[in-house]
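> forwarded from #structure-qc
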């Protein structure tokens, strides 16, 4: 049974301190004084009987119990916000819309489960999904046509003015059809003997792929086709001897089902973070928070690991 001494202000203050990493900044966001914020946190720790945060000159840091409590505190606030928004939406007879951009690896692997979970958490919300290359989706995010983008972190110059929250890490794979000649004697140096489906300029994985090839002494592939189209790559790789260089998430289902085979090349240098990209100058809506929660629930259950 929930301790009746825990009030909404305790949860709200705790979550805001964790988000900002600072009592002072969190207090300003909630229009409270810093002593009032500190007192509220102390009350919560006395009620729970444990230290939830450690204070230092650098700010605040969650303890292990604090990390656990934060997860459920966020869920509680999100659920409460969903309930309030549900009442408002029902009154207006309108559906709140969330526009999400998904890079190919996310669209193919993570999004189906995330959409199902989001539908459970926010059954009245309207979700719009757009996939495409990194540069295109980021531009749509900057213009306000998308509320958030999920995918790999791009080069620093493309990420300026955006927030990135990591969800998991992913690396590139070289995949071929079952029975491909390379499978009998896998050799990275021999990839150039076949057509290659290669990430184009602007693709988030291209610099990582180039770095990996240089590290292995591999030059440019003369016979290559550049695209991020998952639909094309899946068909062309299965019907030809092409070697497809792509993020594992794009072809995870095909590999699991045996329709494509990953060549046993060391691609650790291409490993990079996949996460949520948002505009910090735009307030995060309740449906966006619920979608982020849906993503974490799906990842926690195994997808994207």
């Amino acid at each position: 049974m929930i301790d009746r001494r825990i009030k909404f202000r305790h949860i709200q203050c705790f979550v805001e301190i964790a988000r900002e990493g600072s009592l002072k900044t969190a207090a300003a966001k909630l229009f409270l004084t810093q002593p009032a914020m500190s007192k509220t946190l102390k009350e919560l720790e006395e009620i729970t009987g444990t230290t939830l945060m450690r204070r230092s000159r650098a700010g605040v840091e969650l303890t292990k119990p604090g990390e656990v409590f934060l997860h459920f505190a966020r869920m509680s606030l999100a659920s409460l916000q969903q309930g309030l928004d549900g009442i408002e939406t029902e009154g207006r007879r309108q559906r709140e819309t969330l526009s999400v951009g998904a890079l190919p690896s996310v669209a193919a692997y993570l999004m189906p489960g995330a959409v199902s979970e989001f539908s459970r958490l926010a059954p009245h919300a309207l979700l719009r999904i757009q996939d495409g290359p990194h540069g295109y989706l980021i531009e749509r995010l900057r213009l306000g046509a998308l509320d958030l983008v999920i995918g790999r972190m791009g080069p620093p110059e493309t990420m300026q003015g955006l927030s990135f929250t990591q969800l998991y890490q992913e690396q590139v794979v070289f995949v071929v059809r079952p029975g491909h000649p390379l499978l009998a004697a896998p050799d990275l140096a021999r990839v150039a003997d076949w057509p290659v489906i290669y990430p184009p300029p602007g693709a988030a994985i291209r610099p990582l792929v180039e770095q990996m090839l240089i590290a292995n002494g591999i030059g440019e592939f003369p016979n290559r086709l550049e695209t991020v189209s998952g639909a094309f790559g899946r068909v062309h790789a299965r019907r030809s001897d092409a070697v497809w260089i792509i993020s594992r998430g794009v072809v995870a289902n095909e590999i699991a089902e045996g329709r494509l085979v990953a060549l046993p090349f060391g691609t650790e240098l291409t490993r990079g973070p996949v996460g949520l990209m948002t505009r910090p100058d735009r307030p995060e809506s309740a449906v966006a928070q619920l979608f982020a929660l849906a993503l974490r629930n799906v990842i926690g259950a195994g997808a994207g690991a």
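QC bot note: The mean pLDDT is 87. The chain has twelve helices and twelve strands.
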